[in-house]
Protein backbone atom coordinates (compact mmCIF):
# COMPACT_ATOMS: atom_id res chain seq x y z
CA UNK A 1 0.00 0.00 0.00
CA UNK A 2 2.86 2.36 0.81
CA UNK A 3 4.39 1.57 -2.54
CA UNK A 4 1.12 2.40 -4.29
CA UNK A 5 0.88 5.69 -2.36
CA UNK A 6 4.37 6.68 -3.32
CA UNK A 7 3.62 5.82 -6.97
CA UNK A 8 0.46 7.94 -6.81
CA UNK A 9 2.40 10.88 -5.34
CA UNK A 10 5.04 10.54 -8.01
CA UNK A 11 2.35 10.33 -10.65
CA UNK A 12 0.50 13.29 -9.18
CA UNK A 13 3.69 15.29 -8.97
CA UNK A 14 4.49 14.54 -12.59
CA UNK A 15 0.98 15.51 -13.62
CA UNK A 16 1.24 18.72 -11.61
CA UNK A 17 4.55 19.63 -13.25
CA UNK A 18 3.06 18.91 -16.68
CA UNK A 19 0.06 21.13 -15.94
CA UNK A 20 2.23 23.95 -14.65
CA UNK A 21 4.56 23.69 -17.62
CA UNK A 22 1.69 23.69 -20.06
CA UNK A 23 0.11 26.65 -18.32
CA UNK A 24 3.38 28.58 -18.35
CA UNK A 25 3.88 27.81 -22.01
CA UNK A 26 0.36 29.01 -22.74
CA UNK A 27 0.84 32.30 -20.91
CA UNK A 28 4.24 32.78 -22.58
CA UNK A 29 2.72 32.22 -26.00
CA UNK A 30 -0.08 34.64 -25.19
CA UNK A 31 2.39 37.25 -23.96
CA UNK A 32 4.46 36.90 -27.13
CA UNK A 33 1.31 37.19 -29.23
CA UNK A 34 0.35 40.37 -27.38
CA UNK A 35 3.82 41.85 -27.84
CA UNK A 36 3.79 40.97 -31.54
CA UNK A 37 0.41 42.62 -32.13
CA UNK A 38 1.36 45.67 -30.10
CA UNK A 39 4.73 45.94 -31.84
CA UNK A 40 3.13 45.79 -35.30
CA UNK A 41 0.57 48.44 -34.33
CA UNK A 42 3.33 50.76 -33.12
CA UNK A 43 5.86 49.92 -35.84
CA UNK A 44 6.88 53.22 -37.50
CA UNK A 45 7.11 53.90 -41.23
CA UNK A 46 10.64 55.35 -41.22
CA UNK A 47 13.91 53.72 -40.20
CA UNK A 48 14.96 56.76 -38.20
CA UNK A 49 11.91 56.29 -35.96
CA UNK A 50 12.98 52.78 -34.94
CA UNK A 51 13.90 53.42 -31.32
CA UNK A 52 12.65 51.97 -27.99
CA UNK A 53 10.52 55.02 -27.12
CA UNK A 54 8.48 54.49 -30.29
CA UNK A 55 7.00 51.37 -28.71
CA UNK A 56 6.17 52.99 -25.36
CA UNK A 57 2.78 54.25 -26.46
CA UNK A 58 -0.91 53.36 -26.22
CA UNK A 59 -2.54 52.58 -29.57
CA UNK A 60 -6.24 53.41 -29.68
CA UNK A 61 -6.74 50.73 -32.32
CA UNK A 62 -5.83 48.03 -29.77
CA UNK A 63 -8.34 49.36 -27.21
CA UNK A 64 -11.12 49.79 -29.75
CA UNK A 65 -10.43 46.37 -31.27
CA UNK A 66 -10.48 44.65 -27.86
CA UNK A 67 -13.79 46.31 -26.95
CA UNK A 68 -15.33 45.30 -30.28
CA UNK A 69 -14.18 41.70 -30.00
CA UNK A 70 -15.48 41.41 -26.43
CA UNK A 71 -18.91 42.41 -27.66
CA UNK A 72 -19.04 39.60 -30.25
CA UNK A 73 -20.14 36.00 -29.66
CA UNK A 74 -17.34 33.43 -29.49
CA UNK A 75 -17.65 32.13 -33.07
CA UNK A 76 -17.91 35.58 -34.61
CA UNK A 77 -15.11 36.79 -32.34
CA UNK A 78 -12.63 34.24 -33.70
CA UNK A 79 -13.49 35.03 -37.33
CA UNK A 80 -13.23 38.77 -36.68
CA UNK A 81 -9.91 38.24 -34.88
CA UNK A 82 -8.49 36.28 -37.81
CA UNK A 83 -9.55 38.97 -40.31
CA UNK A 84 -8.13 41.69 -38.06
CA UNK A 85 -4.84 39.78 -37.86
CA UNK A 86 -4.59 39.50 -41.64
CA UNK A 87 -5.40 43.21 -41.95
CA UNK A 88 -2.73 44.11 -39.40
CA UNK A 89 -0.28 41.88 -41.27
CA UNK A 90 -0.94 43.72 -44.53
CA UNK A 91 -0.57 47.04 -42.73
CA UNK A 92 2.76 45.87 -41.31
CA UNK A 93 3.96 44.95 -44.80
CA UNK A 94 3.04 48.43 -46.01
CA UNK A 95 5.08 49.92 -43.16
CA UNK A 96 8.10 47.79 -44.08
CA UNK A 97 7.75 48.83 -47.71
CA UNK A 98 7.54 52.46 -46.63
CA UNK A 99 10.82 52.03 -44.75
CA UNK A 100 12.51 50.64 -47.83
CA UNK A 101 11.09 53.22 -50.23
CA UNK A 102 11.93 56.07 -47.86
CA UNK A 103 15.51 54.80 -47.49
CA UNK A 104 16.06 54.61 -51.27
CA UNK A 105 13.57 56.97 -52.94
CA UNK A 106 12.69 59.23 -50.01
CA UNK A 107 8.96 58.70 -50.42
CA UNK A 108 6.26 56.27 -49.35
CA UNK A 109 5.21 53.14 -51.18
CA UNK A 110 2.36 53.74 -53.64
CA UNK A 111 0.20 50.59 -53.84
CA UNK A 112 -1.15 51.64 -57.24
CA UNK A 113 2.08 52.44 -59.08
CA UNK A 114 5.13 50.90 -57.45
CA UNK A 115 4.87 47.15 -58.01
CA UNK A 116 7.10 47.32 -61.07
CA UNK A 117 10.00 48.71 -59.03
CA UNK A 118 10.62 45.44 -57.19
CA UNK A 119 12.50 44.07 -60.20
CA UNK A 120 14.88 47.05 -59.94
CA UNK A 121 15.33 46.34 -56.23
CA UNK A 122 16.30 42.74 -56.99
CA UNK A 123 18.75 44.00 -59.61
CA UNK A 124 20.34 46.35 -57.09
CA UNK A 125 20.82 43.50 -54.57
CA UNK A 126 22.32 41.37 -57.32
CA UNK A 127 24.77 44.13 -58.27
CA UNK A 128 25.86 44.88 -54.72
CA UNK A 129 25.74 41.44 -53.09
CA UNK A 130 25.63 38.82 -55.85
CA UNK A 131 23.14 36.37 -57.36
CA UNK A 132 22.78 34.26 -54.21
CA UNK A 133 21.82 37.31 -52.17
CA UNK A 134 19.30 38.36 -54.81
CA UNK A 135 17.65 34.93 -54.75
CA UNK A 136 17.70 34.99 -50.96
CA UNK A 137 16.10 38.42 -50.92
CA UNK A 138 13.27 37.24 -53.20
CA UNK A 139 12.68 34.14 -51.07
CA UNK A 140 12.73 36.21 -47.88
CA UNK A 141 10.31 38.74 -49.37
CA UNK A 142 7.85 35.99 -50.36
CA UNK A 143 8.08 34.36 -46.93
CA UNK A 144 7.48 37.70 -45.21
CA UNK A 145 4.55 38.52 -47.48
CA UNK A 146 2.90 35.20 -46.64
CA UNK A 147 4.18 34.72 -43.12
CA UNK A 148 3.45 38.06 -41.46
CA UNK A 149 -0.33 38.07 -42.11
CA UNK A 150 -0.55 34.36 -41.18
CA UNK A 151 1.35 34.72 -37.90
CA UNK A 152 -0.60 37.83 -36.90
CA UNK A 153 -3.91 36.10 -37.68
CA UNK A 154 -2.90 33.24 -35.37
CA UNK A 155 -1.73 35.70 -32.72
CA UNK A 156 -5.05 37.56 -32.78
CA UNK A 157 -7.01 34.31 -32.45
CA UNK A 158 -4.80 33.35 -29.52
CA UNK A 159 -5.44 36.66 -27.77
CA UNK A 160 -9.16 36.74 -28.44
CA UNK A 161 -9.63 33.39 -26.66
CA UNK A 162 -8.05 34.67 -23.46
CA UNK A 163 -10.98 36.75 -22.18
CA UNK A 164 -13.31 33.73 -22.41
CA UNK A 165 -12.80 32.88 -18.74
CA UNK A 166 -11.79 36.39 -17.67
CA UNK A 167 -14.40 38.56 -19.37
CA UNK A 168 -14.81 40.92 -16.42
CA UNK A 169 -11.06 41.47 -16.03
CA UNK A 170 -10.65 41.98 -19.77
CA UNK A 171 -13.44 44.55 -19.87
CA UNK A 172 -11.96 46.44 -16.92
CA UNK A 173 -8.51 46.42 -18.55
CA UNK A 174 -9.93 47.85 -21.76
CA UNK A 175 -11.74 50.60 -19.80
CA UNK A 176 -8.60 51.49 -17.84
CA UNK A 177 -6.48 51.69 -20.99
CA UNK A 178 -9.15 53.71 -22.77
CA UNK A 179 -9.27 56.15 -19.89
CA UNK A 180 -5.48 56.38 -19.83
CA UNK A 181 -5.50 57.08 -23.57
CA UNK A 182 -8.00 59.92 -23.14
CA UNK A 183 -6.01 61.42 -20.25
CA UNK A 184 -2.80 61.31 -22.31
CA UNK A 185 -4.57 63.03 -25.22
CA UNK A 186 -5.99 65.82 -23.06
CA UNK A 187 -2.74 66.30 -21.13
CA UNK A 188 -0.57 66.06 -24.24
CA UNK A 189 1.69 63.47 -22.64
CA UNK A 190 4.75 62.72 -24.77
CA UNK A 191 7.76 60.45 -24.72
CA UNK A 192 10.86 61.64 -26.61
CA UNK A 193 8.76 64.19 -28.46
CA UNK A 194 6.10 61.70 -29.59
CA UNK A 195 2.57 61.51 -28.10
CA UNK A 196 1.89 58.52 -25.84
CA UNK A 197 -1.69 58.27 -27.11
CA UNK A 198 -1.53 57.30 -30.76
CA UNK A 199 -3.74 56.41 -33.71
CA UNK A 200 -0.83 55.88 -36.09
CA UNK A 201 -2.22 52.70 -37.63
CA UNK A 202 -5.56 54.32 -38.40
CA UNK A 203 -3.78 57.38 -39.78
CA UNK A 204 -1.71 55.16 -42.07
CA UNK A 205 -4.83 53.43 -43.41
CA UNK A 206 -6.48 56.80 -44.00
CA UNK A 207 -3.42 58.35 -45.68
CA UNK A 208 -2.87 55.33 -47.93
CA UNK A 209 -6.52 55.27 -48.96
CA UNK A 210 -6.26 58.99 -49.73
CA UNK A 211 -3.10 58.34 -51.76
CA UNK A 212 -4.84 55.68 -53.83
CA UNK A 213 -7.81 57.97 -54.54
CA UNK A 214 -5.50 60.91 -55.33
CA UNK A 215 -3.44 58.73 -57.67
CA UNK A 216 -6.49 57.62 -59.60
CA UNK A 217 -7.76 61.21 -59.87
CA UNK A 218 -4.34 62.45 -60.93
CA UNK A 219 -4.39 60.16 -63.95
CA UNK A 220 -7.35 62.00 -65.47
CA UNK A 221 -6.09 65.47 -64.52
CA UNK A 222 -2.63 64.80 -65.92
CA UNK A 223 -4.04 63.41 -69.16
CA UNK A 224 -5.89 66.70 -69.67
CA UNK A 225 -2.73 68.69 -68.87
CA UNK A 226 -0.59 66.65 -71.25
CA UNK A 227 -3.08 67.13 -74.09
CA UNK A 228 -2.62 70.92 -74.05
CA UNK A 229 0.64 72.00 -75.68
CA UNK A 230 0.81 75.53 -77.05
CA UNK A 231 4.10 74.91 -78.84
CA UNK A 232 2.80 71.91 -80.72
CA UNK A 233 -0.42 73.72 -81.61
CA UNK A 234 0.83 77.19 -82.51
CA UNK A 235 4.47 77.00 -83.63
CA UNK A 236 5.04 75.85 -87.23
CA UNK A 237 8.12 73.73 -87.91
CA UNK A 238 9.87 76.48 -89.90
CA UNK A 239 9.87 78.72 -86.81
CA UNK A 240 11.22 76.09 -84.42
CA UNK A 241 14.86 76.13 -83.31
CA UNK A 242 15.85 78.59 -85.99
CA UNK A 243 18.89 79.79 -84.01
CA UNK A 244 20.37 76.29 -83.96
CA UNK A 245 20.07 75.41 -87.63
CA UNK A 246 23.23 73.75 -88.89
CA UNK A 247 24.42 72.88 -85.36
CA UNK A 248 25.02 69.44 -83.86
CA UNK A 249 23.02 69.48 -80.63
CA UNK A 250 23.77 66.82 -77.98
CA UNK A 251 21.65 66.33 -74.87
CA UNK A 252 23.62 64.18 -72.43
CA UNK A 253 22.24 62.76 -69.18
CA UNK A 254 24.81 61.84 -66.54
CA UNK A 255 23.36 59.17 -64.28
CA UNK A 256 22.94 60.19 -60.60
CA UNK A 257 24.78 63.49 -61.14
CA UNK A 258 23.11 65.46 -58.36
CA UNK A 259 23.74 68.68 -56.50
CA UNK A 260 25.51 66.67 -53.81
CA UNK A 261 28.30 66.01 -56.33
CA UNK A 262 29.31 69.69 -56.44
CA UNK A 263 28.55 70.68 -52.84
CA UNK A 264 29.19 67.78 -50.43
CA UNK A 265 32.61 68.31 -48.76
CA UNK A 266 33.53 64.65 -49.14
CA UNK A 267 32.54 64.42 -52.80
CA UNK A 268 32.82 67.85 -54.39
CA UNK A 269 36.63 68.34 -54.36
CA UNK A 270 37.10 65.61 -56.97
CA UNK A 271 34.07 66.64 -59.06
CA UNK A 272 34.79 70.38 -58.82
CA UNK A 273 38.37 69.76 -59.96
CA UNK A 274 37.09 67.78 -62.95
CA UNK A 275 34.66 70.57 -63.90
CA UNK A 276 37.29 73.28 -63.42
CA UNK A 277 39.76 71.42 -65.62
CA UNK A 278 37.04 70.79 -68.19
CA UNK A 279 36.07 74.46 -68.25
CA UNK A 280 39.70 75.45 -68.75
CA UNK A 281 40.39 72.94 -71.54
CA UNK A 282 37.15 73.65 -73.39
CA UNK A 283 37.80 77.38 -73.21
CA UNK A 284 41.22 76.76 -74.74
CA UNK A 285 39.47 74.85 -77.53
CA UNK A 286 37.19 77.81 -78.22
CA UNK A 287 34.12 76.73 -76.24
CA UNK A 288 32.23 78.72 -73.63
CA UNK A 289 29.79 77.41 -71.05
CA UNK A 290 27.10 78.39 -68.57
CA UNK A 291 25.59 76.38 -65.73
CA UNK A 292 22.76 76.30 -63.18
CA UNK A 293 20.51 73.78 -61.43
CA UNK A 294 17.28 72.00 -62.26
CA UNK A 295 14.97 70.39 -59.71
CA UNK A 296 14.36 66.81 -60.79
CA UNK A 297 11.01 65.07 -60.58
CA UNK A 298 12.61 62.06 -58.90
CA UNK A 299 15.48 61.20 -56.59
CA UNK A 300 17.60 58.12 -55.94
CA UNK A 301 16.29 56.18 -58.97
CA UNK A 302 13.64 56.15 -61.73
CA UNK A 303 15.79 57.96 -64.29
CA UNK A 304 13.15 57.62 -66.99
CA UNK A 305 10.85 59.96 -65.03
CA UNK A 306 13.50 62.70 -65.15
CA UNK A 307 14.29 62.10 -68.83
CA UNK A 308 10.64 62.39 -69.82
CA UNK A 309 10.12 65.44 -67.57
CA UNK A 310 13.06 67.24 -69.17
CA UNK A 311 12.08 66.36 -72.72
CA UNK A 312 8.30 66.84 -72.49
CA UNK A 313 7.99 69.92 -70.29
CA UNK A 314 5.58 68.04 -68.01
CA UNK A 315 6.12 67.18 -64.36
CA UNK A 316 6.37 63.38 -64.50
CA UNK A 317 7.00 62.13 -60.99
CA UNK A 318 5.40 58.67 -61.05
CA UNK A 319 4.96 55.70 -63.32
CA UNK A 320 1.32 56.45 -64.05
CA UNK A 321 2.15 59.89 -65.44
CA UNK A 322 4.99 58.36 -67.46
CA UNK A 323 2.66 55.78 -69.00
CA UNK A 324 0.07 58.46 -69.74
CA UNK A 325 2.44 60.76 -71.61
CA UNK A 326 4.44 58.11 -73.45
CA UNK A 327 1.27 56.36 -74.61
CA UNK A 328 0.54 59.40 -76.76
CA UNK A 329 2.85 60.69 -79.47
CA UNK A 330 1.13 64.10 -79.54
CA UNK A 331 3.20 65.77 -76.83
CA UNK A 332 6.05 67.79 -78.33
CA UNK A 333 9.34 66.72 -76.78
CA UNK A 334 12.64 68.48 -77.30
CA UNK A 335 13.76 65.60 -79.49
CA UNK A 336 10.43 65.72 -81.32
CA UNK A 337 10.83 69.46 -81.97
CA UNK A 338 14.17 68.84 -83.71
CA UNK A 339 12.65 65.99 -85.70
CA UNK A 340 9.61 68.03 -86.69
CA UNK A 341 11.75 70.71 -88.36
CA UNK A 342 13.22 68.18 -90.77
CA UNK A 343 16.60 69.93 -90.34
CA UNK A 344 18.24 67.33 -88.09
CA UNK A 345 18.77 63.60 -87.91
CA UNK A 346 17.56 62.53 -84.44
CA UNK A 347 19.45 59.70 -82.73
CA UNK A 348 19.20 58.18 -79.28
CA UNK A 349 22.20 56.49 -77.65
CA UNK A 350 20.90 54.51 -74.68
CA UNK A 351 23.36 51.86 -73.44
CA UNK A 352 21.13 51.09 -70.46
CA UNK A 353 18.33 49.84 -72.72
CA UNK A 354 18.74 46.08 -72.89
CA UNK A 355 15.36 44.95 -74.22
CA UNK A 356 12.53 46.12 -76.47
CA UNK A 357 11.55 49.68 -75.61
CA UNK A 358 8.18 50.64 -77.11
CA UNK A 359 8.23 53.95 -75.22
CA UNK A 360 11.04 55.04 -77.53
CA UNK A 361 8.54 56.05 -80.21
CA UNK A 362 7.44 58.90 -77.94
CA UNK A 363 10.81 60.61 -78.50
CA UNK A 364 10.65 60.39 -82.32
CA UNK A 365 14.21 59.17 -82.86
CA UNK A 366 15.24 58.50 -86.44
CA UNK A 367 17.67 55.93 -85.05
CA UNK A 368 17.93 54.36 -81.61
CA UNK A 369 21.11 52.66 -80.42
CA UNK A 370 20.63 50.34 -77.44
CA UNK A 371 23.07 48.12 -75.57
CA UNK A 372 23.06 45.47 -78.31
CA UNK A 373 23.49 47.77 -81.30
CA UNK A 374 26.48 49.73 -79.95
CA UNK A 375 28.86 46.85 -80.69
CA UNK A 376 30.44 46.55 -77.25
CA UNK A 377 32.58 43.43 -76.66
CA UNK A 378 33.93 44.18 -73.18
CA UNK A 379 32.65 43.39 -69.67
CA UNK A 380 29.72 45.08 -67.98
CA UNK A 381 30.66 47.30 -65.06
CA UNK A 382 28.00 46.27 -62.55
CA UNK A 383 24.69 47.83 -63.69
CA UNK A 384 26.32 49.75 -66.54
CA UNK A 385 26.49 47.66 -69.68
CA UNK A 386 29.51 49.58 -70.98
CA UNK A 387 31.83 52.45 -69.94
CA UNK A 388 30.78 55.97 -70.87
CA UNK A 389 33.92 56.53 -72.91
CA UNK A 390 32.97 53.57 -75.06
CA UNK A 391 29.40 54.89 -75.47
CA UNK A 392 30.73 58.21 -76.73
CA UNK A 393 33.32 56.51 -78.92
CA UNK A 394 30.56 54.39 -80.50
CA UNK A 395 28.45 57.51 -81.05
CA UNK A 396 31.40 59.10 -82.84
CA UNK A 397 31.97 56.02 -84.99
CA UNK A 398 28.32 55.35 -85.82
CA UNK A 399 26.96 58.87 -86.23
CA UNK A 400 28.93 61.99 -85.35
CA UNK A 401 32.11 61.04 -87.17
CA UNK A 402 30.45 59.99 -90.41
CA UNK A 403 31.40 61.91 -93.54
CA UNK A 404 28.91 63.86 -95.62
CA UNK A 405 26.24 63.84 -92.95
CA UNK A 406 23.78 66.55 -92.04
CA UNK A 407 23.25 68.16 -88.62
CA UNK A 408 22.62 65.79 -85.71
CA UNK A 409 20.43 65.98 -82.64
CA UNK A 410 21.42 63.29 -80.16
CA UNK A 411 20.27 62.20 -76.74
CA UNK A 412 23.12 60.32 -75.05
CA UNK A 413 22.70 58.61 -71.68
CA UNK A 414 25.88 58.00 -69.67
CA UNK A 415 25.48 55.14 -67.20
CA UNK A 416 28.88 54.55 -65.57
CA UNK A 417 27.81 56.61 -62.56
CA UNK A 418 24.86 54.32 -61.84
CA UNK A 419 24.94 52.66 -58.41
CA UNK A 420 26.51 50.58 -56.93
CA UNK A 421 29.57 52.51 -58.27
CA UNK A 422 31.86 49.47 -58.28
CA UNK A 423 33.71 48.28 -60.21
CA UNK A 424 34.43 51.44 -62.17
CA UNK A 425 36.09 51.89 -65.57
CA UNK A 426 38.95 54.29 -66.14
CA UNK A 427 39.95 56.48 -69.06
CA UNK A 428 42.01 55.05 -71.91
CA UNK A 429 43.28 56.73 -75.04
CA UNK A 430 40.44 57.48 -77.44
CA UNK A 431 42.27 55.55 -80.13
CA UNK A 432 42.51 52.54 -77.77
CA UNK A 433 38.79 52.12 -77.05
CA UNK A 434 38.14 49.83 -80.03
CA UNK A 435 35.37 47.28 -79.44
CA UNK A 436 35.71 47.53 -75.65
CA UNK A 437 37.96 44.52 -75.11
CA UNK A 438 40.51 46.86 -73.57
CA UNK A 439 38.28 47.09 -70.50
CA UNK A 440 38.73 43.43 -69.54
CA UNK A 441 41.91 44.15 -67.59
CA UNK A 442 40.42 47.27 -65.99
CA UNK A 443 37.37 45.32 -64.82
CA UNK A 444 39.49 42.61 -63.21
CA UNK A 445 41.24 45.06 -60.89
CA UNK A 446 38.06 47.00 -60.06
CA UNK A 447 36.62 47.13 -56.57
CA UNK A 448 34.06 44.63 -55.33
CA UNK A 449 30.66 46.29 -54.68
CA UNK A 450 30.08 43.99 -51.69
CA UNK A 451 33.11 45.50 -49.98
CA UNK A 452 32.32 49.07 -51.00
CA UNK A 453 28.80 48.97 -49.59
CA UNK A 454 29.97 47.89 -46.15
CA UNK A 455 30.89 51.50 -45.40
CA UNK A 456 28.99 54.68 -46.30
CA UNK A 457 32.20 56.71 -46.69
CA UNK A 458 33.51 54.22 -49.22
CA UNK A 459 30.24 54.48 -51.13
CA UNK A 460 30.56 58.27 -51.30
CA UNK A 461 34.17 58.01 -52.41
CA UNK A 462 33.33 55.63 -55.24
CA UNK A 463 30.35 57.76 -56.23
CA UNK A 464 32.66 60.78 -56.57
CA UNK A 465 35.04 58.72 -58.70
CA UNK A 466 32.18 57.58 -60.96
CA UNK A 467 30.93 61.13 -61.54
CA UNK A 468 34.48 62.27 -62.22
CA UNK A 469 34.88 59.50 -64.79
CA UNK A 470 31.57 60.24 -66.55
CA UNK A 471 32.27 63.98 -66.75
CA UNK A 472 35.83 63.43 -67.94
CA UNK A 473 34.58 61.10 -70.67
CA UNK A 474 32.04 63.66 -71.87
CA UNK A 475 34.21 66.77 -71.68
CA UNK A 476 37.25 65.21 -73.31
CA UNK A 477 34.98 63.88 -76.04
CA UNK A 478 33.82 67.43 -76.82
CA UNK A 479 37.39 68.68 -76.65
CA UNK A 480 38.58 66.03 -79.11
CA UNK A 481 35.64 65.68 -81.47
CA UNK A 482 33.67 68.90 -81.05
CA UNK A 483 33.85 71.70 -83.60
CA UNK A 484 32.40 75.13 -84.29
CA UNK A 485 28.93 73.63 -84.78
CA UNK A 486 28.86 71.61 -81.54
CA UNK A 487 26.27 72.47 -78.87
CA UNK A 488 26.20 70.32 -75.73
CA UNK A 489 23.55 70.37 -73.00
CA UNK A 490 24.44 68.01 -70.15
CA UNK A 491 22.74 67.45 -66.83
CA UNK A 492 22.11 64.97 -64.08
CA UNK A 493 18.89 62.98 -64.04
CA UNK A 494 18.48 62.85 -60.26
CA UNK A 495 20.30 62.90 -56.95
CA UNK A 496 22.04 59.62 -56.00
CA UNK A 497 21.05 57.08 -53.38
CA UNK A 498 20.34 58.51 -49.88
CA UNK A 499 23.49 56.81 -48.63
CA UNK A 500 25.39 59.40 -50.66
CA UNK A 501 23.10 62.39 -50.03
CA UNK A 502 22.89 61.63 -46.29
CA UNK A 503 19.10 61.55 -46.76
CA UNK A 504 18.88 65.14 -47.96
CA UNK A 505 15.48 66.11 -49.37
CA UNK A 506 17.11 68.29 -52.04
CA UNK A 507 16.35 67.13 -55.60
CA UNK A 508 18.50 69.54 -57.61
CA UNK A 509 20.84 68.44 -60.39
CA UNK A 510 23.51 70.50 -62.20
CA UNK A 511 22.98 71.47 -65.82
CA UNK A 512 25.36 73.17 -68.25
CA UNK A 513 25.29 74.38 -71.85
CA UNK A 514 28.50 74.32 -73.91
CA UNK A 515 28.88 75.90 -77.35
CA UNK A 516 31.61 77.09 -79.69
CA UNK A 517 29.50 79.74 -81.41
CA UNK A 518 29.13 82.89 -79.21
CA UNK A 519 25.73 83.55 -80.81
CA UNK A 520 24.39 80.36 -79.24
CA UNK A 521 25.42 81.45 -75.76
CA UNK A 522 24.15 84.99 -76.35
CA UNK A 523 20.64 83.59 -76.78
CA UNK A 524 20.56 82.56 -73.08
CA UNK A 525 22.40 85.56 -71.60
CA UNK A 526 19.16 86.70 -69.93
CA UNK A 527 18.77 83.38 -68.11
CA UNK A 528 21.19 84.46 -65.41
CA UNK A 529 23.18 81.22 -65.55
CA UNK A 530 26.75 81.32 -64.29
CA UNK A 531 29.85 81.11 -66.45
CA UNK A 532 31.63 77.77 -66.44
CA UNK A 533 30.58 74.18 -65.95
CA UNK A 534 30.38 74.19 -62.15
CA UNK A 535 27.35 76.05 -60.74
CA UNK A 536 27.91 77.71 -57.37
CA UNK A 537 25.42 77.48 -54.49
CA UNK A 538 23.88 80.78 -55.63
CA UNK A 539 23.21 79.64 -59.21
CA UNK A 540 19.59 79.82 -60.46
CA UNK A 541 17.34 76.83 -59.81
CA UNK A 542 14.51 75.94 -62.20
CA UNK A 543 12.06 73.08 -62.14
CA UNK A 544 13.11 70.50 -64.69
CA UNK A 545 9.79 70.64 -66.55
CA UNK A 546 10.25 74.36 -67.34
CA UNK A 547 13.42 73.83 -69.37
CA UNK A 548 11.75 72.65 -72.58
CA UNK A 549 9.71 75.84 -73.12
CA UNK A 550 12.59 78.11 -72.16
CA UNK A 551 14.93 76.33 -74.54
CA UNK A 552 12.46 76.37 -77.43
CA UNK A 553 11.75 80.05 -76.85
CA UNK A 554 15.44 81.01 -76.61
CA UNK A 555 16.39 79.20 -79.81
CA UNK A 556 13.20 79.63 -81.79
CA UNK A 557 11.75 82.67 -83.50
CA UNK A 558 11.24 84.37 -80.15
CA UNK A 559 7.51 84.80 -80.71
CA UNK A 560 6.33 81.44 -79.47
CA UNK A 561 4.93 80.82 -76.00
CA UNK A 562 7.44 80.16 -73.29
CA UNK A 563 8.88 80.96 -69.92
CA UNK A 564 12.15 82.64 -70.84
CA UNK A 565 11.44 85.69 -68.76
CA UNK A 566 10.01 83.84 -65.78
CA UNK A 567 11.96 84.26 -62.54
CA UNK A 568 14.07 81.41 -61.30
CA UNK A 569 13.42 79.77 -57.97
CA UNK A 570 15.66 81.23 -55.23
CA UNK A 571 18.94 79.42 -54.86
CA UNK A 572 19.56 77.23 -51.82
UniProtKB/TrEMBL annotation:
Keywords: Membrane, Transmembrane, Transmembrane helix. The keyword DNA damage does not apply. InterPro entries: Alkaline_phosphatase_core_sf (IPR017850). The chain crosses the membrane at residues 24-48, 54-72, 79-97, 132-157, 169-189. It comes from the Bacteria. This is Phosphoglycerol transferase MdoB. It comes from Actinopolymorpha cephalotaxi.
Amino acid sequence: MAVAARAFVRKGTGLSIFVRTRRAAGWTTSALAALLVLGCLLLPRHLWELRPTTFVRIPLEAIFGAALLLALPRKGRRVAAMLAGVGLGLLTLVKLLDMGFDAVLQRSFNPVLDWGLFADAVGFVRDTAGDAAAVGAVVAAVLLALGIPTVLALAMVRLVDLPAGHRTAATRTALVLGTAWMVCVMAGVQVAGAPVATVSAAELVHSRAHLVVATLRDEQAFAREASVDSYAAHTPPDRMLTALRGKDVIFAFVESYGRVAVEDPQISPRVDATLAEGTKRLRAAGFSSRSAFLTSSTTGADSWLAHSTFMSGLWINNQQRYRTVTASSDRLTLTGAFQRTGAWRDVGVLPGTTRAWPDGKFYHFDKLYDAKSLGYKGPAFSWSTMPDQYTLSAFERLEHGRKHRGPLMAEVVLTSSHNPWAPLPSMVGWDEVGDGSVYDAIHKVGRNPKQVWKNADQVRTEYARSIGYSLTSLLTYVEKYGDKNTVLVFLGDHQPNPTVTRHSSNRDVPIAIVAHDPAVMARISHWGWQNGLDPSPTAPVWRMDTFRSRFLTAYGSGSGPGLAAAPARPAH
